[in-house]
Design brief:
about 270 residues; alpha+beta; Phosphorylase Kinase, domain 1; 2 domains; 9 helices; about 45% helix; globular
């Protein structure tokens, strides 16, 4: 009986440990996808409140209040559509295209962003990040993350994403750092916002944003992601020149990483 009791106690301990791990572990990729879909549906159905606040000096970009009858939260409404070939391109469409590409690569760097109609106009609505610090302020205040390796690895992936979408944030000018929000009071989650000027039709990478490393997951997803799949996801928001340049940059990034691996070794270039 004592032996049986010890065995049962052992099984119970294993079950308890597994249960704690299951309920406390971070969200898996599939759970993140479910969360994204729920937020997308919320953004499409929630009512926008009458009060809206203009964001900085930007025209037709507002912080708004959202309410679907069950939950209230903030939203970022972008109405402007100066898409290319406009001389000063800035469009809500580019933010949606960036979010769709982010999902294809399973990066979870761009907050959920969908297209809606507001006062008869097509526009985008994006979830807002409630408590954050901008990357520029983090650097000025010299606040270091609790897990530096994980944080800076995420920044490496973000650098690859910026090259892919041809949008500056980590390089060229300090103002771009304000487009990176960090939930520093929670888990130091990194978010890339304000991609209204992305997808410039250039068939080279950003010289000031040199790629030196990236995650194994991102590299593998780039290798596996078919051009046709990308086209189908972004064709509603990008023109032919923008799509062609995007696909060209994808090939250049893959070639760049392959070359780095050949020169430095996989362990020096790819991280888990």
């Amino acid at each position: 009986m004592k032996i049986i009791k010890n065995i049962l106690t052992g099984f119970f301990s294993i079950f308890l440990i597994f249960s704690i791990w299951f309920f406390c572990k971070p969200l898996t990729a599939s759970q993140e996808n479910v969360k994204q879909k729920e937020l997308e549906e919320y953004l499409k159905t929630a009512k926008i409140g009458p009060d809206k606040r203009l964001v900085g000096r930007r025209t037709e970009a507002y912080l708004v209040n959202l309410d679907d009858g069950k939950m209230k939260r903030g939203g970022f409404l972008r109405l402007l559509d100066n898409s290319r070939p406009h001389r000063a391109p800035d469009s809500y469409k580019y933010g949606i295209a960036a979010y769709e590409l982010d999902k294809l690569l399973d990066l979870n760097l761009v907050p959920p962003t969908v297209e809606i109609k507001y006062e008869g106009r097509k526009c985008s609505i994006q979830t807002t990040i409630e408590e954050f610090i901008m990357e520029g302020d983090r650097r000025i205040k010299k606040i270091e993350p609790p897990d530096p390796e994980s944080f800076y690895n995420t920044m490496e992936d973000l650098n690859v994403f910026d090259n892919l979408t041809y949008s500056y944030s980590l390089c060229k000018h300090k103002g771009g750092l304000d487009d990176i929000l960090i939930e520093h009071k929670k888990d130091w989650k990194v978010w890339r916002i304000d991609l209204g000027e992305a997808f410039a039709p250039y068939t080279e990478l950003i010289s000031e944003c040199e790629i030196t490393r990236c995650s194994k997951k991102l590299y593998q997803n780039l290798l596996n992601l078919k051009d046709k799949v990308i086209k189908n996801k972004v064709k509603k928001y990008l023109n032919k020149d923008e799509i062609d340049a995007l696909l060209k940059r994808k090939k250049i990034i893959i070639k760049k990483i392959k070359k780095l691996i050949a020169e430095k070794g996989e362990e020096s270039v790819l991280f888990s």
